[in-house]
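User: Could you check the structure of this?
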Amino acid sequence: MTKEVLISIRGLQIGEDAANEEEFEQIETICTGEYFYRNGSHFVLYDELMEGFEEPCRNMLKFREKEFSQTRKGPVNVQMVFEDGKKTMTSYVTPFGNIMMSFDTDVIEIEETEDLIKVHISYVLEANCQFVANCNIYVEIKAKESADKTP
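Assistant: Sure, the predicted structure tokens are below.
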């Protein structure tokens, strides 16, 4: 994998009242970033512009077998940790107040080839001890040079 990468992060939330796919909430972010591999862990750094804020949010993804974390610093601050088969908690710090969140992770799957890494995380999201949604995150990290060649 090269240092310069293209990152796609797609999230899918399925609330308990969702009867069909139209009621699923899907969000996708695509941006460029930097990739590193150190001490058995993958690292991806990228900036993200968030709606309503001028300052970008600095993101770091860190992952290895059965563990994934995302750290965000800027308008919002949080470290979200997902561990296969475990429930983790964090405080999501926003300009509007803090939210206590928990992630009860069912599955973390990582597929890796020379120019592509795919990560899938399935978890239950709670906010302030209340069920929010069943969620899936799909992350694709492509070598920027190979992404540039794709038609």
